[in-house]
# Entry
Amino acid sequence: MDSTQTAELQTLCTIQSTLSNAGLDRKITQPNVIVLGAQSSGKSSVLEHIIGREFLPRGQGIVTRRPVIIQKIVDPNISKDQLSINDTPVNSYERLGQMLFESMEQAARSGDGITPEPVIVKVVLNTGVSLSLIDMPGLTKIALKGQSPEFPQLIENICRSYIQNPNSILLAVSPANVDVANSDALHLARQVDRTGDRTIGVFTKMDLIEDPNTIRKAFEGRAYTLKLGYFGVVCRSKKDMNNGVTLDQALAKEASFFAKDSFFRDFSSNLGIKNLSQRLSFHLLAKIRETLPFVKPSVQNMITQKQAYAKNFQKISDLYNTGSHHALIVSLVTMFTNSFQGVFQGGTLKNMKGILPKLTKSKK
# Structure
């Protein structure tokens, strides 16, 4: 990736952070790679192999309780990895993982036990491929003990709210030893991307395939056609991690496995984490170049609207402080009328929410 491409991705990451801090991250359809997968599909392993570092929390049941925006930036000029979470610098991957786990625990203690509000992790490395991905909570069909019966639906709703972004690329992760027709990730992706134009299918655990012909059908487009295609990967198993197998060793093991497997030789460019990372970067950069020119005017329009609301609120405050209650009431009615008229032009009444209760409470 050249310096121009890196700068483009850094611009996207800056926009992501700024909009997230302002609570506007899902109101602007910025380009993203959104990672979907059921529990135990190997989604976390795929992400760590793509990033090339180990820091994602692991455990039983639902671990990812909120979306995690992972920004991987490659800067060949640095000598040491630079880490941060929500713009707060972190001095080690162990500490990063701990802080990420704490943010999940905080979400777990909330009313629903899960939240759509993201946490942003930034990792600056001196090698690899720059990418920005959003790790979504794992899809599940059954609520565990202590969870609300609606918990699986809450997860699906949060995932759907993100993947509806037409500028997003969907990375649907499924185990290769499960039939494509039963893939929860592909099923959800298909609901918003019916023609498969912006979905990439990823098969994990390729070394555990019982019938290679099932996967071959997908690669050849005879199962469920995806314009961006399918990829097969082999990541570290739990046994590998317990035995201390590093990510670099796992990548070497994966390359060796596919080199010996003649069955998928015709699809060699769609095998392995390295090829997947490069293809993701290519498609993400294409989306960035296509959409970023439209982001600035969208943000500016929102700023103009907020400034107009602030002016109106200031007028109300001035009237209230001078004791001109008749003028205040007239002003409120006028604002409400204007807002109501705005509904017929595609607007909302949100700017009026809570004005009267706050003023009444203040008066008392």
User: Anything to note?
Assistant: Residues 348-364 have pLDDT under 50 and may be disordered. The first helix runs from residue 3 to 21.
